[in-house]
Amino acid sequence: MSIVGIDLGTTNSLISVFKDGNVVQIPNSFGEFLTPSVVSFDEKGNIFVGKIAKERKITNPNTTVSSFKKFMGTDKKYKIFGKEYTPEDLSAMVLKQLIEDAKKYLNEEVEEAIISVPAYFNNKQRNATKRAGNLAGIKVERIINEPSAAASYYYVKTAEKQTFLVFDFGGGTLDISIVDAFENIIEVVAIVGDNHLGGDDFDLAIAKDISKQNGLDWKELSSQNKEKILKIAESCKFLLNIEKEVMVKTVVEEKEIEGKMSRKHFIEISSDIFYKIKNLLNKILRDAEILADDIDNVLLVGGSSNMTVVQDYIKYITNKKLLYNFKPDMLVGLGVGMIAGIKERNEKLTDIVMTDVCPFSMGINTRNRANEMESIFAPIIQRNTTLPVSRVMEFSTSYDNQREIVVKILQGENYYCSDNLEIGQIKVTVPKGPEGKEKISVRFTYDINGILEVEVKVLSTGQVKKLYIQSDDTNYSEEKMQKMMESLKDLKKDYKEKEEIIYVMELGKRLYEESMGELRQAIGDMIKQFEYILSTGDDFKIRKTYERCLKFFESIDESNNRDEFDDYILDEFMKEEDEEDGEEDDLDDFTSGYTDE
Ligand code: ADP
Ligand code: MG
Question: pTM, whole model, 2 decimals?
Answer without folding.
Answer: 0.75
